[in-house]
Structure formats: structure tokens, C-alpha cells
Amino acid sequence: MRARIATTAAVFALSALALTGCGSSGNDSKPATDQTSASASGAADSASGTPASKESGSGGSAAGGTAAATTGGSAGGSGSGGGATSACTTKNTRLRFLQAAQHATPQKPAQGAIEVTNTSKSICTIVGAVTLTAKDDQGKADPVETDNSQGGTDAVDVGPGATAQAWVTYTDLNFEGSASARETCPVQASKVEIALPKDVGRTVDVVKDGGAAGIFNVCGKDVRVSAFKAS
């Protein structure tokens, strides 16, 4: 009888211990559940925050790229517009006046030339009237003044190192005088003044085609300058 009571008591004791153990297990699992929930919540927050942050950054980059592209395009367009050629002036050209290689005849005038050589590294443009003035070396006659307004003043682009040329037609002989005085004209100029459009005049020597000194011998006032053509 005592043995049964002892056995029963032992069973009850074990049952109590078992129940106590279960209670402890339940309490231990609760923090785990809370931790799991917190982790899940953090992960959710992280998940929702990360795409938003990344998307925002990506959008910023795209916007920056667009802005850069737009700015770059505008700059390129402006540069292209600013690429218009500069005018040919005293600063970027060299001038030369060539005496006619052959004398005039009663049927055909003598033909000299004005040469404009571009000495810069970029294209320059001649547009407008080019003026030519010749003064007699002795000052015995009025100067001869003319331009190419009738011959043509359309724009002519002259590349770096290239030359534009205009013909100068005139009479260099006096057909009314004696044979010995045929080459005696009112204006005999060893120098002439040439002014490019909207530029100051430059005095240059009159030269022959080979480079030797020449004379711009003008009989009469009919001196004409043609339009320029680039070579």
C-alpha cells in the first residue's frame, strides 16, 4: 500500500515537473516570436526603404544625365553657331597689288590684280566693297579711287593659307599722244592703298608678277575692280 502511494506521489511529482517545463518552454518561445516579428518588420522596412532610396538615386542619375545631355547639346549648338567665319582684315591677311603683265590696247584694257591671302589658321570672309586708291608719286594729279561695288561684293570665304583675287582693269597707255609719250600717264603710283570691307586701308607696293617693283600707270579714270574669287 505504501509502495503504491509512493509510486503515485512520484508520478504526480513528475507530472508537475513536466508542466513546469512546458510553461518555461512557452515563455522562452515568446521572445523568439517577438524577435522574429521584429526581424520581419525590419526586413520589410528595409525592403520598402531600399527600393525607394535606389529608385530615387536612379531617377536623380537619369535626371542628371538628361540635364547633362541637354546642356551639352545646347553648348554644341551654341558652338556651332559661334563657328561663323571671321572677316578678312589687316590682322589676318596679307595684301598684294600686281601690275598688269601686258599693256592695254585700244580694244582691251590692261589687267592687274588685288590679292588677299589669309595668314590665319581659320577661314575668313570678304563681304562688301573693297576700295582701291592710287596717288601719283609726284602728286601732280588727283588720286584714282574705285571699288568693286559694281563688279560684285558677294561673300567669299578664304581658307587658311589660301588667296582670293580680284582683277583690276585700267588703261596704262596714252593713245592720243606721241609714241614716245604713250606710257606717260597722269597717275604713276609705286604704291596703292587697299581697304578691305569695314577695315582700315593698307598701303602696299605695286609689284610685277615675278615680285619686282612695278608701277600702277593710270591714264584716264576708268579703273574697275571685279568681284573676288578664292583660288
Summarize the structure.
With 231 residues, the protein is of the alpha+beta class. It has one helix at residues 2-82, and strands spanning 86-87, 93-98, 110-118, 124-126, 131-134, 144-147, 156-158, 163-170, 187-189, 191-195, 201-207, 216-218, 224-225, 229-230. Residues 24-87, 137-156 are annotated as: Disordered.
Explained architecture:
- The protein is of the alpha+beta class and 231 residues long.
- It has 2 domains: 1-84; 87-230, Immunoglobulins (Immunoglobulin-like, Sandwich).
- The chain contains 1 helix and 14 strands, in the order H-E-E-E-E-E-E-E-E-E-E-E-E-E-E.
- The chain has one helix spanning 2-82, and strands spanning 86-87, 93-98, 110-118, 124-126, 131-134, 144-147, 156-158, 163-170, 187-189, 191-195, 201-207, 216-218, 224-225, 229-230.
- Strands 2, 3, 5, 6, 8, 10, 11, 13 and 14 form a 9-stranded mixed β-sheet that branches. Strands 1-4-7 form a 3-stranded mixed β-sheet, with no helix packed on it.
- Strand 10 (191-195) and strand 11 (201-207) form a beta hairpin.
What is the correct CATH architecture of the largest domain? Answer: Sandwich
Would you tell me the overall average pLDDT?
Answer: 76
Provide the CATH topology of the largest domain: Immunoglobulin-like
The helix fraction, in percent, is 25-40%
Domain module count? 2
CATH level-1 class of the largest domain: Mainly Beta
Beta content comes to 25-35%
Radius of gyration: 50 Å
Judged by helices, strands and strand pairing, the structural class is alpha+beta
Please work out how many helical segments DSSP would assign.
Answer: 1
Number of strands: 14
Order of helices and strands: HEEEEEEEEEEEEEE
Major beta sheet summary? 9 strands, mixed
**What is the name of the CATH superfamily of the largest domain?**
Immunoglobulins
User: Which outline best applies?
Assistant: elongated
